[in-house]
Amino acid sequence: xANDQQPARNGAELFIRALENEGVKYIFAxxxxxNLAFLxxxxxxxxxxxxxxxxxxxxxxxxxxxxLTGQVGVCLSTLGPGATNLVTAAAYAQLGAMPMMxxxxxxxxxxxxxxxxxILDVVDLMRPLTKFTxxxxxxxxxxxxxxxxxxxxxxxxxxxxxxxxxEDIADETPDTDSHIFQPSDARRPTASRxxxxxxxxxxxxxxxxxxxxxxxxxxKRVSQALIHLVNATNIPFFTTQMGKGVVDERHPxxxxxxxxxxxxxxxxxxxxxxxxxxxxxDVVEKPPFFMHPGGKKVIHINFSGADVDPxxxxxxxxxxxxxxxxxxxAEHCGQCDNHDFTRFMEVxxxxxxxxxxxANDDRFPVIPQxxxxxxxxxxxxxxxIALDNGMYKLWFARNYPAYDNNTVLLDNALASMxxxxxxxxxxxxxxxxxxxxxxxxxxxxxxxxQELETAxxxxxxxxxxxxxxxxxxxxxxxQGQEGYPDFGLNYRNPDFVKYAECYxxxxxxxxxxxxxxxxxxxxxxxxxxxxxxxxxxxSENHRVFDxxxxxxxxxx
Length: 556
What we know:
Elements: H1 11-21, E1 26-30, H2 36-43, E2 48-51, H3 55-69, E3 73-77, H4 81-84, H5 87-96, E4 100-106, H6 122-126, E5 132-135, H7 142-154, E6 160-166, H8 167-171, H9 193-205, E7 209-213, H10 220-233, E8 237-239, E9 254-257, H11 265-272, E10 275-279, E11 297-302, E12 316-319, H12 322-332, H13 342-356, H14 368-378, E13 384-387, H15 391-399, E14 408-409, H16 420-430, E15 436-441, H17 442-447, H18 451-457, E16 462-468, H19 473-481, H20 496-502, E17 506-509, H21 516-526, E18 529-535, H22 539-553
Parallel strand pairs: 1-2, 1-3, 3-4, 4-6, 5-6, 7-8, 7-10, 8-9, 10-11, 11-12, 13-14, 13-15, 15-16, 16-18, 17-18
Helix pairs in contact: 1-2, 1-7, 3-5, 3-16, 9-12, 10-12, 11-13, 14-15, 14-21
């Protein structure tokens, strides 16, 4: 549908033309009767409808589209319960800095014969969860509202936006001269020369500088610039959970992942550092370390200034396009003779040895270290894993080396369960030639498990690994840590093999540790949707995180 066609017949068609103008390729949706005019306009458009089984999953897919492409992902719901089902996805995109637009329907606003049936103030509901939320009350304003919403969603810091399209406005005939606004080509501002030079001086003056890579750095240009910076300065680096893979973690200067906030091996290096060069970190991500008054200095390098927080208050900020800032530091800061990285390399040796421990353990149910090791063994360098939220996420963040940016999709901002499968589906749609695996706990998987039907219907190539402990495992671990009795967190699961098969997927069950890797290899090679059920032994949580780390890290 070209924008130079005859005038739009109604507001819905004008809305679709505005979305086409923004380059939208997909709309993830669970439509309702209030969306029917919009759905009809969509039927005649170049945009592909992806019909989901739950609005939350539609939102997670739209947000992940934004995360992976940098373009705005779009999802659609009806009014009332359809819109409220998008709330979790809105928070997921907003906290995770993923550009996403939500479109919700509404009853007619000029005259309605249904009283308050299903009526909620969705615009106000979305206000604290979005960068921009509006009800469209006149069809002529649709192009401007769409352009403004896309501008807000895409601008740094990216996030969620929402437009409500009432039924009568979707049916309303717009003026014949309604103008569709062209997307802006504005560039991100560059950091000031003074702030960059100050950062260089701080790096030269430091004796034990350390680079931390956060979620905001997980972009191709930033990745390339950071590799240049590490190689030019020789400064070691570590990552937050959402910064994994920005620089290939096989790099000799990679120290590890700050999956925990304190008490892990990598925190020995952080404590020793007198300067942390913090690239792309945002306080919405669970703290990778705690700052203290009078302690080490921190340089904040990001698209926007730092939110002051009791445990994060950087002494210097470099605000502007991250890739440009990091490239400048790489070109102008250079290696310094006074830098001493001996202690950091000792930490690296300890981390590397620790990651190999029990990686080939044959116990069954399978321990987390073996699961992580075998998944890494079957995934190619560019393979993508999408993690749901649970105890296994800590194990993968720490023990799974990522080789490229956005090959480990996890959420450490909202940290919502139920996001792993839809995120993996989106990755599989975008990159059909790459191997993709969703890694879910049994609890998180069941929150959006119905999307297996969507994955099969779309013909995706996808492996879903279910780490099965028949419990909400992370909370159970925390319950034990705090000395409470084991209570209220266990449940029973369906037969996951049969469950997969009833959706048209292929199910597999691991019955001994040695079978996990061959089954995963087979499933990845076969194509189509496969579900692999692996029982897990989480006794290692207490042994490693509660006891071993406390004993070993204090000896470093």
